[in-house]
Amino acid sequence: MSALIEIENLSVTFRQRGREVRAVRDVSFSVAARESFGLVGESGSGKSTILRAICGMAPVSGGSIRIGGAPAATGRAFAARVQMVFQDPYSSLHPRRTVDATLAEPLAIHGRGDRDARVLAALGDVGLDASFRFRYPHQLSGGQRQRVAIARALMLEPEILLLDEPTSALDASVQAEALNLLSRLRVERGLTFLMVSHDLAVIDHMCDAVAVMRDGAVVERLDRATLADGGAQEPYTRQLLAASAYAAPV
Amino acid sequence: MSLLEVEDLRVTFDTEAGPVEAVRGVSFSLDRERLAIVGESGSGKTMTGRALLRLIRPPGRISARRIAFDGVDMMAASERQVRALRGRRIAMVMQDPKFSLNPVMRVGDQLTEGLRRRDRMGARSAREKAAAMLEAVQIREPDRVMHAYPHELSGGMGQRVMIAMMLIPGPDLLIADEPTSALDVTVQAEVLAILDNLVRERGMGLIFISHDLRLVSRFCDRVLVMYKGRVVEELAAGRLEDARHPYTRGLMACLPRIGGDRGPLPVLERDEAWAR
Fold it and tell me: Where is the ABC transporter domain (chain B) (predicted)?
């Protein structure tokens, strides 16, 4: 059986004023259905660009992206299968739309009925009670906003969630709640995750395997066991590992 | 005598719904060391830093039994006296370069403004000094950066420019508010090494405001943990894992660990009594 997400020799090139920037260089990996795969790397390493390329939001200059064996497309059918949760819940929700309007929009676009029941169910799924339904984003905390963003991504019951640093704008205790929520939803709905983070501990907690990126290319691949045993070879990975540890006891 | 002594610092905002205390009775002293203030957003850590420079605007107000910096009574000092200390002897690196650098002024002009106006230095020597400081914060092409506007720099570069700007006058006390949270680990390590060097070699005092417990445990000497405007625990940074306060323990427990089990992360249960 082939994997649900197959990325083969993917390259993304941005052209700006005659200058070319190869943001992603020959990246290949695949994610099986119901698996969770992580991408780590510093800013500018191309990890978010891969997520954007999957959604058709970045100029692919080479290679292929296949979802469920077929070339990734854009448009409605694709949106119903693949959804994204963005990093910053302060900018990814429309400031002048209520939670209700935000959650109902995908239903309207895709002509799905039963609006009220679905919106209420979605709020319940992410642990928000019905009183949040007619609030605006500025009336929510960062953690509550990210729950709304997760609820919005799940409105169309997709198979795949692309998670772009979903908890890096959140406090530690709120991050824990959001990660628990994502883990629970993954099991309940059989979701497949492709998650980007700069925090190796978060990736380790959420993902079965991880690719470490630098300058647009994958420099190292690790599974959980190798990571836990200190099997990381790349100096950059080791730096990330050190950043997720406490001081050695004196 | 310590470099800085703070007793019973309070920051209050008068709102329509009555006074809100953002900082409630914080006391600590600082020598030429690296002191961390950690806590979640809203815990009052940034307000504490700003209050030390008397940078709280109305409707906020500061009160304290005592704030003494190198023998100077900061609460009794006139605005003029405080202004003479700000920048020159006490500097603060703000959190976000996007909002803290002047967007319509070239980096070089911002870096040399203080030298030229405060120290009446000539244009050329001011630029040389600024370029040297950019090199000290590991910026490889100081001339290019001096000519750039802030939007032309990455977050990490902007952060280093701000640190360079604050270090030019050679302050005795640096208050750094999340100075590395926008940086990648590689750049973060460089910036921390610069700060560390200043504490060791120049005997600067450093107040390092952060939400990252793991980072401060590696980098700082002492940690104050704040919750709702109060210091709930103070301990040696290297002994953070021996923390006793349930808030500190809760904060540490809810962070995922490499190789940890993948069950649900413990969620922080807050207790009203901690804030009392």
Answer: 4-253
A206 to chain B: which residues are within 8 Å by CB?
256
Question: Could B184 and A184 be called an inter-chain contact, meaning their C-beta atoms sit closer than 8 Å?
Answer: no
* Whole-number Å distance between alpha carbons of A127 and A151: 10
Pair of tokens at residue B237: 């940074």
Tell me if the domain spanning A5-94+161-243 has CATH number 3.40.50.1260.
no
| Number of domains chain B contains | 1
Cα separation, A187 vs A191, in Å, equals 7
Reduced to 3 states (helix: H, G, I; strand: E, B; else coil), residue A160 is strand
pLDDT in tens, B113-149: 988 888 888 889 999 999 998 988 878 888 889 999 9
Kindly indicate whether the ipTM for this predicted assembly is greater than 0.90, answering yes or no: no
Most B-contacting residue of A173, A226, A237 (CB-CB within 10 A), to test interface: A173
Q: Residue A42: which of B184, B254, B262 has the nearest Cβ? A: B184
For residue range B21-57, list pLDDT tens digits in order. 999 999 999 999 999 999 988 899 999 999 999 998 8
The answer to whether the beta carbons of residues A156 and A80 sit under 8 Å apart is: yes
With respect to residue B141, please indicate whether it lies within any of the assigned structural domains: no
Flag if B185 and A243 touch (Cβ within 8 Å). yes
Kindly indicate the confidence band of residue B96, based on its pLDDT and cuts at 50, 70 and 90. confident
Per-residue exposure over A91-114, b if at least 16 CB sit within 10 Å of its own CB, e if not:
ebbeeeebbbebbbebbeeeeeee
- Tell me the mean pLDDT in the region B222-248: 93
Q: Indicate whether B70 belongs to any domain.
A: yes
Q: State residue B160's pLDDT score.
A: 86
Domain residues for the domain of B267 are 1-89+204-276
Q: Across the interface, do B251 and A173 touch by the CB < 8 Å criterion?
A: yes
Amino acid A74: pLDDT: 73
Tell me the CATH number at B27.
3.40.50.300
Task: Give pLDDT, residue A35.
Answer: 95
Those residues of chain A that have pLDDT short of 50 are: 249-250
Residue B162, in any domain of the structure: no
Interface of A with B (CB under 8 A): 42-44, 142, 171-177, 179-180, 183-184, 198, 200-202, 204-206, 224, 227-228, 236, 239-250
